[in-house]
């Protein structure tokens, strides 16, 4: 998109209608017409042919004089041509330095913009790019009537501030750019306005993702896809890429049902454009495997993953092949094929570099497979190897390392080594708290610490962790996301343990409402939420409400058939106890169940 922005500036340079506010000297710079003045005319009559004939042997004609203005314009034309022909940022900077002495600051506006865009595209010196972007915006921004150049300068300011991690400032400039473009929609050429608008929404999506406002970022990415479809056609390569980007974003918010059609669309387009054996199609299939895994379609996930790995192998794309191999093993683990997963990982580890993060990831997954095989000694050895590698990478790649720590903590939890798990999660927290773009991972770590504290009987200390997790997760994914519901459910269980049934009913009620909306009232976890609410109502002595809520859960379990027969039997027993309690009033309260975090 940055390359497209630079090309657009070059087109703006040749359109006088877009730069009426520029000084006259700079408007000449972007004109294809000659700018040199003709020779000055005298007020007297032109000499006669006779006079010239008479003086042909005795008079040498003087060269025509060029006016001072003409010489200035000619020099400026040469300078602008040198700037336009520059290919690299160094060449552009050298040409621009020559221009600075000849043009006013306002007259330099478009050159400043183009240079800023070039530096932003290269990404090596964002501070310098910011300086040029600021000058460009100042050159354009005092014009009363909005124009496309102002919008482009604002978009550039947003992009550079994003590179500098000035996220709030970036959003401010991008919002202004969006507003300017909205005012220009009916005045400018539609294609050019759309091109700039796409750049604005693309950077907005990046900024919001960095701020962990992922649900909002989805709206910007959908707008990017819509613009590309209108500009380039629904089957263009760029639309294929935008569809995959949107699928990845949906997968990042765990909204896999929405991710699936966009990934399939990308696969279809790339298959037509590049061929089914292409690397682009392999990337689509690898993502499709991840999506199918999340949807519980593990066999289909393995099928897509296998195809992707074969293409990566034949194309020599080693790193993608290794990561796809790890994903394949995780799919096999999900299918209960633990021995097969171990064999897959042994093949992958042989191709990894010593002390690489990829190697650490292999041992994390191998530990998971061995843990499921209840081979705890070997599982611990694998996790220790992974920890040894990851400890050296904390400063280099804190985001990925912290996520691995969380995954290892889950394995320790499976082996009932809760203190080791909590210690490792705190280690992850220290890194995640410094990474604003990883707020969702931070929320997950808080939630898991709270969950583990509850399991070890430390209920009161668990509550602040769970509350922080709910707050951060709501900011990341929205307050109605199902991941938030699991945290509220654990809060409900915690308050019930602390003999605070009123708070418990409130938390369980929030969890139930979210699950009904996000998962559907018949989802197994939505039924568990009803069961927990029944327990809280019973603790308050509200037996009629408790019976009603539990009956809803029982009706749902019956629809699930054999898959929920244990839950059904337990719920029916609790219902009988509740009915007795309603009559007699003094049976021990059933315990609510904290829902396992997704």
UniProtKB/TrEMBL annotation:
Residues 33-84 are annotated as: Disordered. Keywords: TPR repeat. TPR repeats lie at residues 402-435. Residues 48-58 have a biased composition (Polar residues). Residues 71-80 have a biased composition (Basic and acidic residues). PANTHER family: KINESIN LIGHT CHAIN-RELATED. This is Uncharacterized protein.
